[in-house]
Write a structure and sequence with these properties.
Layout: H1 14-118
């Protein structure tokens, strides 16, 4: 009778079998320790990943709140700018009106000056207040 490998089976003694069994048990125990270590390291790594994910999530909520606050402040600032533009336009119109009125007054003063220049020069100068 031959085995699958083509060898003839040899008779092993019970001491050989017990020695092989002891080595096998040691190997299984070693694997168990390694598996425990791998599980412990994996659990620690998973804890780190969860902590990082939680931190990033909290940071994203903070950023979201800051963006919402900035958006609100931007809207308020836009309203203030629109109000200032309207006020500026009003002031510009008032300055234009004042310039137009000043031009009218210059024309009036100019006409008065022309009339004064046209008056005869032989008239005495106007009296000061309080003079007889």
């Amino acid at each position: 009778m031959t085995t699958e490998t083509g060898r003839r089976p040899t008779r092993e003694t019970s001491a050989d079998i017990e020695a092989r069994l002891a080595r096998l048990e040691e190997a299984v125990t070693g694997l168990g320790h390694r598996l425990g270590l791998i599980q412990w390291v994996s659990g620690g790594a998973a804890g780190v990943v969860v902590a990082i994910g939680t931190t990033l999530l909290a940071r994203s909520f903070t950023l979201s709140d800051q963006i919402a606050a900035l958006t609100e402040r931007t809207a308020v600032t836009e309203q203030k700018v629109a109000t200032l533009q309207i006020d500026f336009q009003d002031v510009r119109n008032e300055v234009r009106t004042a310039n137009d009125r000043l031009t009218e007054l210059r024309l009036i003063v100019g006409n008065i000056a022309v009339k004064l220049d046209a008056m005869p020069q032989h008239l005495p100068p106007p009296r000061k207040p309080g003079e007889p």
